[in-house]
TrEMBL record, chain A:
Keywords: Amino-acid transport, Cell membrane, Membrane, Transmembrane, Transmembrane helix, Transport. Residues 21-206 form the ABC transmembrane type-1 domain. GO terms for biological process: amino acid transport. GO terms for cellular component: ATP-binding cassette (ABC) transporter complex. This is Polar amino acid transport system permease protein. Pfam families: BPD_transp_1. NCBIfam families: HEQRo_perm_3TM. GO terms for molecular function: transmembrane transporter activity. Its main location: membrane.
From TrEMBL, chain B:
This is Amino acid ABC transporter membrane protein 2, PAAT family. The keyword Disulfide bond does not apply. It is found in: Cell membrane. It comes from Orenia metallireducens. Keywords: Cell membrane, Membrane, Transmembrane, Transmembrane helix, Transport.
Length: 221, 212, 281
């Protein structure tokens, strides 16, 4: 192998890597929170009795599922300035991720809501509990418990998808490795660091998912 | 003038579409083979090889596809393996999607209820006969929807190969915007191309899922 | 528990792999070229291949860009085609991100970087530059509404500065504008777009490229007078391919003497080629 290792470039660019690591996490965390809200709204719209709303949100979800995330990112990043909305690249990335993940989350939420047996709702009604309270005290807690595992799965996907923001120059972990590679002409060192970074993040997530799964799957709903 | 430019946009995008389709087809077939072999290995629990397969799926699924692509494209040359963007793209896709297909196929095989295995055994079928006539056909029916979903993910992932220079649909779109074309228009058209390819597959997959 | 075992084993194997690779570095310090094919001179290889592979970054008019049909064109593209013609081989251009040019050269994907590359001492540690063919400089350009009035104004301020990733403007910005926040972008038009969309306040680029970019929105952008740094452009090859470097140097000498270069210069840069002013001594 014709390669001269220079691991000290990692030291030299260490604050780049810290920033990249931190950015990946912060972008993912912000995006998943916003996407959760967006996803819940979408799910409610899709289940709504108004055919138009249901149709629109369904169409939106299908659109997101049938187009690559990269194209969606480009659409937001290049499209917004074209109509004179000037937001920083970071927030364009977050918006694209939220728009994307929101669609997938809405499907998860919808599946969770639909899995609550109708019997529960009827029982609640016969007990005289009104619709809003049914939702808040009976449906939502059970649904939330059901959707937490797939939600963590979605969070994992989001963390990996955040790497796509490298295409618009955001300094997350993958792009950081790329930039260090561009400056030092040495690919192995930075990419190995990025590799380890992602594996660490995903492993921590997986372990917490396992813990949460045990905590939440109490009485097999 | 207007429609002339429009034609040129579409024509150039179509040359990109050609690469997207080539990538998708080559990678789909190869990753399916990889997934099938590895999934089978995992479900049989072959001693050491299963560990290797587990390691492979764990690492590959924990790492972003883009990073894997960069590693294959930028690192391998130092091992004297210089791949064109197309081949590097296919290889990365096969490695990445193959891992997911492994899991799908494995769970498909394992989800065929035990009763079937026992019934086959009591009928005197050996392992290969059992797999070929009873287990695998049922497993295939179960795995079809998630596999179709995975194919769609594969097609969407081909867009990332544009970032190592392959002139696929996405990259041509990007080049057109650099030339000053309206990005809304360009990426809208690009989106339509992908939609036309992916949505039918998603639709079929959803229907299959509901009928299973 | 099974999953935890997989995780731990994966970590162990990963760590072992990384350590074994890291610990083998001392022995890799020697350049190994034991394969017979690597010992062939690059010019021989190009001749037997029948084609020379030139790396470019095609998004910077007037040097290297694509016309309305998507065809490659520009000053350096024309020079590259001329190289192929004079060498008697075909030319294959590989269009890539600017930051990928040197890595591609080093990993032998391309034979020659045939684009507007500044021959800096830092880069010269990794690649071998041909003699320079053009003298230019880095300028700053801003929106018309900006309060900055000259290149000197840009120094010492904490502004967002857009540069091309992997370019010397990135180096210049890091050295001369310590308080600035440097925003590396993928292509030259992206820098202009970032400026127009308020993502950056100042854009740094080569003077000639900046001029072309500003021309696309002359009512919104202006170039600040003054160079931040003077620059000379060369082509580049790998250190071990000295024969190719000597050939390209001779090529430039010939076309300058025969008038081809002056024609190409005038065609793409719109001014007469003045060898005296361009003297890089």
């Amino acid at each position: 192998m014709n390669y001269f290792f220079q691991w000290r470039i990692i030291e030299k660019y260490s604050d780049y890597f810290y920033r990249g690591f931190f950015n990946t996490l912060s972008i993912s965390a912000i995006s998943i929170s916003l996407a959760l809200i967006f996803g819940i709204i979408l799910a409610i719209l899709k289940r709504s009795e108004i055919k138009g709303l249901s149709w629109l949100s369904g169409g939106y979800i299908n659109l997101i599922r049938s187009t690559p995330l990269l194209v969606q990112v480009y659409f937001v990043y290049f499209g917004l300035p074209y109509i004179n909305i000037n937001i920083s690249g970071y927030w364009c990335g977050v918006i694209a991720l939220v728009l994307n993940s929101g669609a997938y989350i809405s499907e998860i939420v919808r599946a969770g809501l639909e899995s609550i047996p109708n019997g529960q709702v009827e029982a609640a009604q016969s007990l005289g509990i009104d619709k809003r309270q049914t939702y808040i005290y009976i449906i939502l807690p059970q649904a939330l418990r059901k959707i937490i595992p797939p939600l963590i799965g979605q969070f994992t996907y989001l963390i990996k998808d955040s790497s796509i923001l490298a295409a618009i120059g955001i300094y997350e972990l993958t792009n950081t490795a790329n930039v260090v590679h561009a400056r030092t002409f040495k690919p192995i060192e930075p990419f190995v660091v990025a590799l380890l970074g992602y594996i660490i993040i995903v492993t921590i997530l997986m372990i917490s998912a396992n813990i949460l799964k045990k905590k939440f799957s109490l009485s097999g709903y | 003038m207007e429609s002339g430019i429009f034609d040129r946009i579409i024509m150039q995008l179509v040359t990109g579409l050609y690469w997207t389709l080539c990538l998708s087809m080559a990678a789909s077939i190869l990753s399916l083979i990889v997934g099938f072999v590895a999934g089978l290995i995992k479900s049989i629990h072959v001693p050491i090889i299963t560990y290797v397969v587990n390691f492979y799926t764990y690492i590959v699924r924990g790492v972003p596809f883009l990073l894997l692509l960069f590693i294959i494209y930028y690192v391998l040359p130092f091992f004297n393996i210089r791949l064109s963007p197309f081949i590097a793209g296919v290889l990365s896709l096969v490695i990445h999607e193959g891992a997911y297909m492994t899991e799908i196929i494995r769970s498909g095989i394992e989800s065929v209820e035990k009763g079937q295995h026992e019934a086959a055994h009591s009928l005197g079928l050996n392992y290969f006969q059992k797999m070929r006539y009873i287990i695998l056909p049922q497993a295939i029916k179960i795995t079809l929807p998630p596999l179709a979903g995975q194919f769609v993910l594969l097609i969407k992932s081909t867009a990332l190969i544009s970032l190592i220079g392959l002139t696929d649909l996405t990259r041509v779109g990007r080049q057109l915007t650099q030339r000053g074309e309206n990005p809304f228009l360009i990426f809208f058209i690009v989106g339509i191309f992908y939609f036309v390819i992916c949505y039918p597959i998603i639709n079929i997959s959803d229907r299959l899922e509901r009928s299973v | 528990m099974n999953k935890i075992r997989v995780v731990l084993m994966s970590f162990l194997i990963m760590v072992l792999m990384v350590m074994s690779v890291a610990c083998s570095s001392p022995s890799n310090e020697q350049v190994t070229s034991s394969k017979a094919v690597d010992e062939k001179r690059i010019l021989d290889k190009i001749q037997s291949r029948g084609k020379i592979i030139i790396g470019i970054n095609a998004s910077a008019p007037p040097f290297t860009f694509r016309d309305n049909n998507g065809e490659l064109t520009g000053m350096t593209v024309e020079l590259g085609r001329l190289i192929g013609e004079r060498m008697g081989v075909e030319v294959e251009f590989i269009d890539m991100d600017w930051a990928g040019l040197i890595p591609s050269l080093l990993s032998k994907r391309i034979d020659l970087i045939g684009d507007r590359m500044s021959n800096t001492l830092e880069r010269a540690k990794s690649v071998a530059f041909t003699d320079s063919y053009l003298k230019t400089g880095t300028v700053a350009y801003v929106r018309n509404t900006s309060s900055l009035s000259s290149a000197d104004d840009v120094r010492g301020k904490d502004l967002k500065v857009g540069v091309l990733l992997g370019s010397i403007q990135e180096e210049v910005a890091t050295d001369q504008l310590p308080k600035a926040e440097i925003v590396p972008l993928q292509t030259n038009p992206d820098i202009k777009s970032a400026l127009l969309s308020n993502r950056v306040e100042v854009a740094l680029d080569d003077e000639i490229i900046a001029y072309e970019q500003v021309q696309q929105a002359p009512d919104k952008l202006k170039i600040l007078p003054g160079f931040l740094v003077v620059d000379t452009y060369s082509f580049a090859v790998r250190h071990e391919d000295n024969d190719l470097r000597l050939w390209v140097n001779l090529f430039f000498e010939k076309i300058k003497r025969e008038g081809e270069f002056a024609k190409i210069y005038k065609k793409w840069l719109g001014k007469e080629w003045n060898p005296e002013a361009q003297k890089q001594l």
